[in-house]
Amino acid sequence: MKKTILTSALALGLAMGAAPSFAETYFPIIAKGFSHQFWQAVKAGAEEAAGRNGVTITFEGPNTEAEIDKQTDILNAAIAKNPQGLGFAALDSQAQVPALQKAADAGIPIVAFDSGVDSDLPLTTCTTDNMAAAAAAADGLAKAIGEEGKIAAVIHDQTSATGIGRRDGFLNRIKEAYPKIEVVDVQYANDALKAADNVKAMLQANPDIKGIFASNEGAAVGLAVAIKETGAKIVGVGFDSGKSQKDAINEGTLIGSVTQNPVGIGQCVVDSLAKALKGETLPKVIDTGFYWYDKSNMADPKVAAVLYD
Amino acid sequence: MSDTTMGKTGTGKSALLSAETMQKAVAFVVLIALIAFFSAFAANFATGANMVGIMQATAVNGVLGVAVTFVIISGGIDLSVGTMMTLTAVMAGIILTNMGMPLPIGIIGAILSGAIMGAISGAIIAKLKIPPFIATLGMMQIARGLALVFSGAKPIYFNDTPNYGLLSPESSISKLIPGVEIPNGVMIMFIVAIIASIVLNRTIIGRMIFALGSNEEAARLSGINVDRWKILTYAICGGICGIAGLIVSSRLNSAQPALGLGYELDAIAAAVIGGTSLAGGRGTVIGTIIGAFIMSVLTNGLRVMGVLEEWKIVVTGVIIIVAVFIDIVLRKRT
Fold first, then answer.
1. Which tens digit of pLDDT belongs to each residue from B271-305?
2. CATH superfamily ID and name for A2-128+261-289
3. Closest in A191, A200, A207 to B53, CB measured
4. Is B290 helix (H, G, I), strand (E, B) or coil?
5. What span, in angstroms and rounded, lies between the C-alpha atoms of B35 and B204?
6. ipTM above 0.90, yes or no
7. Could A35 and B257 be called an inter-chain contact, meaning their C-beta atoms sit closer than 8 Å?
């Protein structure tokens, strides 16, 4: 198996003294971005695990989630540093496989996170099941509108794995489980301001909409702004957390949201790499989990721990 | 048409003005035609609430468009207006939320920080002789980076500044004239446009900006301190970006440090659609506001009609090219 080959290659590398001692173990973590709150939470988790495992990490990402080429540059630079392990969240599940192959050839263990890579190079993938998480959002929305009526969705991006996964997870669940619900509109908006104007136009076109799903933090903030500005009596459901969204749920502007476990994703990446270095075998996918949360369970310690401001 | 005769018989300057008036008129006709089209073919488009929605969606781009109009008329370009807006919003957040200062200080701080950053852009262009495109491309990244650094890459909320909503979503005018629910952010855009128009057309600042854009060398030879006016132009642009930063952060009740990239292109498009020439020396603030309205009417109308987002982007691109083509045709005629 490839995994075994990788591990033995690494063991060989260590034995030959090619890699620095464990005290200097270094893992570059390459995310899809860094300015988004979500990535800051992943970073916090990774740093916590780095401290616990006594390793050094760096956390980098491109400016926007469209810059696949920039991310590849960052990846190549990281591989050139001959790290002892590599954490990688691919912007494109296929485009960056050749670069990853270089890392694998050099015997660097790879752990993918957030969205997967179409290859068996990563030892494991620490991720949220986006389809299942968005289906939970669909259930929450459906329940709140009495399982019938018109609804719509505002999605953060039409090309990335998370955008597609959440959109399809939401739409499929509605189609399969709620025959009396009709999805009348799906729009895209990559920041809060655009999402707000988008949602207002959707409500204008379909005044009888009963609920709207927003697929990430920015979209959810925009959805809440639009509901507030129009005073529309609709059910808003978000994704991820952040202070704006939490406030909106507490005020009742949004009825609930689905949170991933970004801190857990960050910890999973570093912990998995550390385990790989010790020669432990890892499962193909590690589901870091998600929670539906609303006013009733936001204070629940289990949920509160994965919500971020 | 009277414009044609003016073009043939008038002096160079009045011919230029006529082309300008002409394009403004064309832009205005396009705007009215778009509104008429969507009113006829998009159910639910022509409602008061939607008109307010369109105005609100125009406010940020309109103000940024006015900012960049100053620079474009002077013969320059400013690619940093979007991220500059974000940086000033973050500055307002730091002053109001982190430091707990009163609202007026936050407003002044946002506008002043924009003006200072703008002046730095201007100084880099004037003194270091770096082309405006490059200098402001650099400034775009600097502003974006600083916004992330200063905010710790986290949104800053304005929950402790209870009146912050006055800067955008709330409607003060509806309290004076009941039924006119125009949000303050939109009113601020109109006020900025009126003041900017006066500055450009009635003051020495405006005359100098037009002189720079028409023929910088001639301006220099006639003894104008070109560098100083250039720096001032970019400072004005930055200051107006500060106003946009206040409007956007008030509407979202938060300074979102990751927002703003790409907004510069919409602002430039609004100016160009409104008849401001990228060659400099020609343009109007009213044209830019009309241009910004054309963009948001188009976006909103296509959305209300249910046209795919992807096609909406294509149509916006076509409109920009058509607008510039009209500009070229009009210039040839004069």
1. 999 989 888 999 999 999 999 999 999 989 988 88
2. Response regulator (3.40.50.2300)
3. A200
4. helix
5. 37
6. no
7. yes
